[in-house]
Design brief:
- A seven-stranded mixed β-sheet has the order 4-10-9-8-7-5-6, with helices on both faces. The protein has a four-stranded mixed β-sheet with strand order 1-2-3-13.
- It is α/β, with parallel strands linked by helices.
- Helix 6 packs parallel to helix 7 and helix 11 packs parallel to helix 13.
- 38% of the residues lie in helices and 15% in strands.
- The chain binds 4'-deoxy-4'-aminopyridoxal-5'-phosphate.
- 4'-deoxy-4'-aminopyridoxal-5'-phosphate binds next to helix 4.
- This is Aminotransferase.
- Belongs to the class-III pyridoxal-phosphate-dependent aminotransferase family.
Amino acid sequence: AIRTSDAGRLLHRREEHVAEVQEHYFDEPPVMLRGWRELLVDEDGRVYVDALNNVTSIGHAHPLLVHNIARQWSLLNTNSRFHYPQIAEFAERLAGLLPDGLDQVFLVNSGSEAVDLALRLAQAHTGRKDVVAVREAYHGWTYLTDAVSTSVADNPSALETRPEWVHTVDAPNPFRGVHRDDPSRYAVDAVAEVERLADAGTPPGAFLAETLYGNAGGVALPAGYLEAVYAAVRAHGGVAVADEVQVGYGRLGHWFWGFEQQGVVPDIVAVAKAMGNGHPLGAVITTPEIAASYRSQGYFFSSAGGSPVSSVVGLTVLDVIQSEGLQQNAAEVGGYLKERLQELGTRHPLLATVHGFGFYLGPEFAREDGAPATEETAAICDRMRRLGVIIQPTGDFQNVLKVKPPMVFTRESADAFVDALDRVLSTGW
Ligand code: PMP
């Protein structure tokens, strides 16, 4: 298409050299120039409520983060083979957030790196390559993490193209999935798969899952799911890997980590996104025994992982989450938002259910026969944007809104979001 406006010309320039496979939100994306808390401002000065940016955990342009980063850059930034106070402090703080025994920290730069390293640690520790992972999940773009990512929304042929060491089990979705009539069957089947692999002489080295089904729209796993599968994997010498990249770090409100909601403790935890507020930051936290087994691979080094600036970012984000009570805010405002969305569902049948907790919510749209309302959801997101609210679909059917706003989201913004959605559902999309 010939693009004549300034925004159109900019999009054209982007499309010329940013490889096309790196998609952008919206067909006609607004040109964003500023962010503040949970608000975004485009080139025309139009303000949008950002209900989407989970990476921006403490809000856009947080003044303390801006100040601390600038200060640290002006003092020192170097790689983590040098010795400086910030890395010791940050690793100490991260270890303190996890249950006893999980106290060895690896600092990297992204969620993909964190999950990749978590799997390598599991493989090094157990001496086994085989991994059991849940379907419809996304864990990253690196070779290892892509191998265990089977969301058809990301790769339509994902299930046919897995390496032989990747074993997938049904997406444990109690609302939409093969065992929706009896969700306890998901654990039974996953345990059976672990047993089958053990009987075949290839017991899995790791079981990998998001602890709340983030990629499916914040769907809570069936009660007892992780407990049963972790036990089966451990009984055969494997380890439990938790991908907390999206759902961890306080966003769920009542729980800081997703695994707490399931009442389990993993052996290896991968963290990213929220911990850096958009600065590239990731971490793996595990036990001393598992961490030590990496020695068999050589030593571990990441140039920018755990640098003074990255450590200061991590420390500041944690300080702000704590001092501004953002986990508490996720519980309170997130709870209010969920109630309002549920009420909307009583008036608009297209809104079939609302998944999730706190600031990780997934309003799911379905037609009268239960079929996923995929086209409707895309149109709803487009109309929401025109009404000044940024939101996008998720899940294999792209029929769930991924509501995961900056954790400073206010009650007023929650109202603005629900009122806009009410208007779209009432007047058509
Ligand atoms: N794990 C999960 C659950 C994710 O959602 C993502 C990113 N969407 C990743 C891993 C990869 O993180 P990153 O984009 O930082 O590499």
